[in-house]
Amino acid sequence: MAEQINPWSSAPKVDINRLFEEFGIESFAAQKPLLKDQPVFIRRDIVAGHRGYEAISEAIRMKKPFHVLTGFMPSGHPHFGHLMVMKEVVWHINQGGRGFISIADREAHAVRGLSWDFCDKYAREYMECLYALGFKGEIYSQRKNNLLKDLAFEAATKINFSELSAIYGFGPETELAHAMSVAMQVGDILYPQLVGGAAPTIVPVGIDQDPHIRLTRDVTKALRMFLVEDRGSHISIRAKKATPEAIDAVAKRFKGAKKYEGHIDLPAGHNAAEVDEIVRSIEQEFGGFGFMLPSSTYHSFLQGLQGGKMSSSVPESLVWFDDTEKDAKKKIMGALTGGRQTLEEQKQLGGEPEKCSIYQLNKFHMQEDDKELAKMCEACKAGELMCGTCKKETLERVLTFLKEFKEKRDEVSHMAEW
């Protein structure tokens, strides 16, 4: 039985390799050579897996339209744990993607019990951070977006409670609003295609959010009027819930098409991707959505300063973007490292950077230079770099970042309004 993942857990226990195997997530390694000017999170394999990223890498290379969306639940102040997804979104926008951000206030209200006023307060902080990083696009509130609500309702017609139980572990005690928030998540992922046209859509997330991606891909298929399959000797176009008029329109569109009861066959020589694009446009002419399957990337978690996942439920595990210098210093200097028990052992055996929250913070965000990061790692393993020295150097980088980030946020604060 496949392992369930709880997207709302503050401390998920996730074996990434096992989940990749069980749920069919592909390694990102094959995609790396296809991307030029790779950012840190791709160069350093922080983005480890994907679903359907081939469509995105092709769109980037061929300069075709694509969308990029992710969501933030405004249940607390933004912090370093959120920074990776924000950077991924902005990078994809800079590669030509059209940007969308969902402020998941309905989810925060349903799952965390936050008031709408607090949701709006935290949402503005997230918006400031995104704009400060260079985000361009649409940022919307779930509860204020009527198009999204209608789309989520339509998506919900393709979701049953047995699926929610299998994917999320929902039971009789699960509140209806929590289940409704899942349909809203599906709507979020499909929303860019609703307002921006059917196109590849990349959703950068942590591995704990994969249940939403899997469900949305299933719903996307269920919403289609037709299923296009390459059978080798021919292309099969199977009608699902298409009207006779729509079926006739598809058959008339392709030379050599043979119409049967419930499906159409095209002779060899047709390209399945091109056929699917035409079929999707016909779906839309007859009132369907014609959505493309959304894609996703999965990044590894930034280790918390006290071990485990960086989570707002453990304040000592993270640095808030609004932390004072005193608070940041206390957290960084008190962080768990991969150092040995004594200075003597550290010099003899060297440290273990792969277990060190300070090294991970540098790998993810604080050290852009790959050569400098490699030197830090090697010096640690050789017993030449002591934890105290490393913490002090990292603290200076963190304080510089916080100062500069605060200045950028202040410059764009006027944009953080609905």
TrEMBL record:
One Pfam family from the record: tRNA-synt_1b
Enzyme class, UniProt record, top EC level: ligase
One annotated Gene Ontology cellular component of this protein: cytoplasm
GO molecular function: ATP binding; tryptophan-tRNA ligase activity
Keyword ATP-binding: yes
Entry's Gene Ontology BP terms: tryptophanyl-tRNA aminoacylation
Swiss-Prot/TrEMBL keywords: Aminoacyl-tRNA synthetase, ATP-binding, Cytoplasm, Ligase, Nucleotide-binding, Protein biosynthesis
EC number: 6.1.1.2
NCBIfam families found in the cross-reference section: PRK12285.1-3 (NF008926)
Family: Belongs to the class-I aminoacyl-tRNA synthetase family.
Protein's recorded name: tryptophan--tRNA ligase
Species name: Methanocorpusculum parvum
